[in-house]
Amino acid sequence: MRVTIKDVSRASGVSIKTVSRVLNKERYVGAETRARVEAAVAELNFRPSMAARSLAGKRSFQIALICDNPSPYYVYEMQSGIRDRCALDGVRMIAQPYDRNSPTLLDDIENLVEATHVDGLILTPPVSDYPAVLELLAKRGVRFVRVSPGSAVALAPSTFIDNEAAAAAMTAHLLGLGHRRIGFIAGHPSYATSGQRMRGYAKALGKEGISLDPVLVREGSYDFASGAAAAEELLALDPPPTAIFASSDDMAAGALTAAHRR
User: What backbone torsions phi and psi does residue 159 show, to the nearest 5 degrees?
Assistant: First the structure.
């Protein structure tokens, strides 16, 4: 027999409304009462209905992850982390891949919002830097979080690292090992992180009095194949670089494979 919210209410000795507040993680519920309800939920193995929770309030308890990234590992790790956090809060994650070059991108995102009534979106690069997408969501009053934005960081909550400083540190490490001819595989220019990492690379070289040599720079697409192709070109130079800095894990794996072929 399916356990209902009424059973949890009866077992914990509080009203259905209070149980609902605890399940929805609302404030103004005493710690002792919250603990009693949570204990009843665990003991009865109660699983609240997502549809019922949505009907009871203005939330859908769903968030959408908007991704356009050629790296399967990056997307998998991103999805796993978001899914785990959502599970803790009783929220469903919808992963929606999009093509950044699609002429219907704005319509597709708008249709997603209308069809699912998501409570918010997580925008990954390069979509997190598309002004038209940001304007659309702001105009519709849809909450969103940006991952690795390259501009207007204060526009919405964001999560990012200092890519320029990180790239400078990576380059400084190679310089510290004695390398002076360092190849660099940049990411696609539509990603703000590509320019940031390129600046870090150039800055670290400059500190050692080394000018950036365009011959040692190749553009990739943040995927394995482009990393391998770029490394093949760099290693074919005369003289070749003594080290290669690939600005993503997937491109680094491709570069390593290309090096092993020689």
Answer: -130, 130
How far apart are the C-alpha atoms of 45 and 61, rounded to whole Å? 20
Strand 62-67, strand 92-97: pairing: parallel
pLDDT tens-digit map of 61-116 = 889 998 887 677 788 888 888 888 888 777 888 888 887 778 888 898 988 888 88
Q: Radius of gyration (Cα) for the chain, nearest Å?
A: 24
Final residue before a domain boundary, out of 140, 159, 178: 159
Domain count, the chain: 3
Give, in order, the Cα–Cα distances in Å from 100 to each of 38, 103, 121, 135, 222. 43, 8, 16, 16, 14
| pTM for the full predicted model | 0.72
List Cβ neighbours of 32 (8 Å cut-off, separation of 6 or more).
none
Q: Domain range holding 126?
A: 62-159
